[in-house]
Protein: Putrescine-binding periplasmic protein
Amino acid sequence: MFSQHKKSHSKSFVKVLTLIASISAVLSPSAIASERVVNIYNWAGQIGSTTIGDFQNATHIKINYDVFDSNEVLEGKLMAGHSGFDVVSPSDSFLARQIQSDIYLPLDKKKLTNWDNLDPNLMKLMQTHDPDNKYAIPYVWMTTGIGYNIDMVKARLGENAPVNSWDLVFNPENMEKLQDCGVAFLDAPTEIFASALQYLGKDPNSTNAKDYTGEAYELLSKVRPYIRYFHSSQYINDLANGDICVILGWSGDILQSRDRANEAGNGVKIGYEIPKEGALVFFDTFAIPKDAEHVDEAHQFLNFILKPEVAAQVTNDVNFASANGVANNQFVKPEIRNDPAVYPPEEVMSKLFTLKVQEPKIERIITRTWTKIKTGK
Structure:
């Protein structure tokens, strides 16, 4: 009896040891290290509704996903080093400057079997910022323009309100009349100054310091008292809810506001216009930082995004024009593909401009002058 009882305990003890060993193996540093993950830092509101889940299901690679709402925030993390991200989404002009700082890995195009789905014409445009398309893939593209509450603006400025002109937001007389219903600007100094310079008939990529500290500063200072806030994502919900009536913002975000208002059935009618004087067109891209820890997984994510049906879902969900030519031709919904606010017609495209990389001296002047405008000091 005693012998059998001892054997029974011995067997139980062996089972416990086996269980402990298996748990230890699961929790061991080597096992944890082998978990496949990719850490992504993308613009707020700039991913398809099922993109993350679809990728994880297809590859069994876990996504850690975080968002930002300004290039300056992203750049600060990248330039400080050890950001912890494997895939990031700089806009094209910031990408160009960051390439000069040698913070990105060249893409391994052998791992990007869906590369040829990208629109060749857009790829040529991208080469202005990324020669030979070496470091990044263009993800989506959009314009900077004017979003507005149709009824609110009409009530204050009449049927002929200049919604198709920068005059709506840069003329103090118009801004004073719109103040009560709420006007917001992007917190994006480079883009706001470029838009102001375009309105003034100057080079939006001016390298003359006095253009920023002189006429552009004067222009923005005069309308500053009528701007409710500067933010690069808050306006999406505010415009949709009728809490503001005008935004100098990004096309995709404004069209998201329009869709949210329509879905809510709240009676808010939103329009988007690319100013007739000309406006900024830009790409948001995906690139891999040099200190990325999961490079293979990063390439798998990029290759997944390059699938036409995946790229199209992003555009169909968030109204950002796709850089994927096959997606545009085959999978983007016709009502979006034919929306001039998403895909501007040729005569509008001809008046669009891109941002160039500025020398550090001009960048510092832009930053300092922007701070003065925002604080009113």
Notes: Confidence is low (pLDDT under 50) at residues 1-33. The longest helix spans residues 2-27.
